[in-house]
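Re: weekly structure request thread

Next one in the queue (198 aa):
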Amino acid sequence: MTISLRSWMRVVWTSVTQPADMASDVLAMRFPRDALWTALALVAVLNVLLLGVLQFVSPETAATQDQIITVSPFGYLAIIGAFLTFMVFMLVHAGRMMGGDGTIEGTLTLLVWFQAVSLTLEGIQVLLVLVSPPIAAIFGLMSLGAIIWVFVNLVNVLHGLANLGKAIVVIFLALIGTVLGTGLVMGMMGITPPGGGL
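Done, posted below.
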């Protein structure tokens, strides 16, 4: 199957406007677990590359990033990889705590899909920065709302909760566990925010 830019953008649009239906369709594909872990590693790499591009086209973003944390591209890749990996397991366990029945394979599938949609929107924002930073900023805010909406629906379908409120709780619990786990990895790597060390 050949995917063109136009067809992919239609898929992204459908993912934003009908996230529950798209989640069901994606879950039905049933990819092998090894392929899903490889895809997750790929989106982690793409996240790092997109950050580099964004810093290149937007000096203000680069300056802000330098004020927050200083880390090499490989270090950032390790952080993103750890974050996504913890998120997979935290989503599974948090969902089951709320009565869901999501699996590792299903979580990987939807997280990779979510990342693909999110990266596409971020890529569009990078292009808009070159045209008009204010428009890019507005698009960024709209995209943030869209990806939150998409993620809540994906988690809801993943665990069969039939309740967006429960899905939000699952995400909140998963984020807490993920942030703690990623923070531990950062500490082991010796990465701390400015002013965090003595």
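Confidence is low (pLDDT under 50) at residues 62-68. The radius of gyration is 17 Å.
Next request, please.
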